[in-house]
Amino acid sequence: MLAAAAPLRVAAARQPVGFDELVKGWAAEKRPAEKTRYEWTRVMAQFSSFLGHEDAARVTPDDVQRWKEALIAKGLAPKTISDGKLVELRSIFQWTADNRRLMSNPAERVSMDVKRKASETIRIFTDEEASIVLRAALTQKDPVLRWVPWLCAYSGARVSEVCQLRVQDVCQIEGVWCMRFDPEVGPLKTASSERAVPLHQALLDPVS
């Protein structure tokens, strides 16, 4: 008598993981500023267009490396590629991996070496120039134009960091009002840029 044949195990078909779906999931959890969400969605769309498909589950580290090399060939600045393309890709894929949508982050080890040239050194404001900017800001009714220069002047934060702050990022920590700079909201220059900065009393006092 012949032994009964073992039942065949048919592997379940792998479901595609859409880039747009990932960005929406990441944004729903992280709640970034609208500008950040727009920019990161645009970067993922650019990456998808380069690949010619929209399935994140098919992405490999080699795909990310090829995209980086294509951006270099286009003449994009290293800082633009690093902070304006790869950071977004790594963050979205890391969220995806952390939430078990992918086995791993294909962009994890792909980075860009950014070295500033001496000619690219930024000249700082003189005290007189800074005073002119801050006085002019006080005349502005637009809250962005009025407060961003003051928040930068009294914290040392970058304009991009201040502009991507959310309401919940201004909070009290042990009774002290602070601004929290979180890489989950948008790209920061370095890992140490993730920080909480106390608000100066000049920012808390009423200003006429």
UniProtKB/TrEMBL annotation:
Gene3D superfamilies: 1.10.150.130, Intergrase catalytic core (1.10.443.10). Residues 17-97 form the Core-binding (CB) domain. Residues 120-208 form the Tyr recombinase domain. InterPro entries: CB, DNA_brk_join_enz, Integrase-like_cat_sf, Integrase_catalytic, Integrase_recombinase_N, Tyrosine_recombinase_XerCD. It comes from the Bacteria. Keywords: DNA integration, DNA recombination, DNA-binding. PROSITE patterns: CB, TYR_RECOMBINASE. Signal peptide: none annotated. The keyword DNA-binding applies. Belongs to the 'phage' integrase family. This is Tyrosine recombinase XerC.
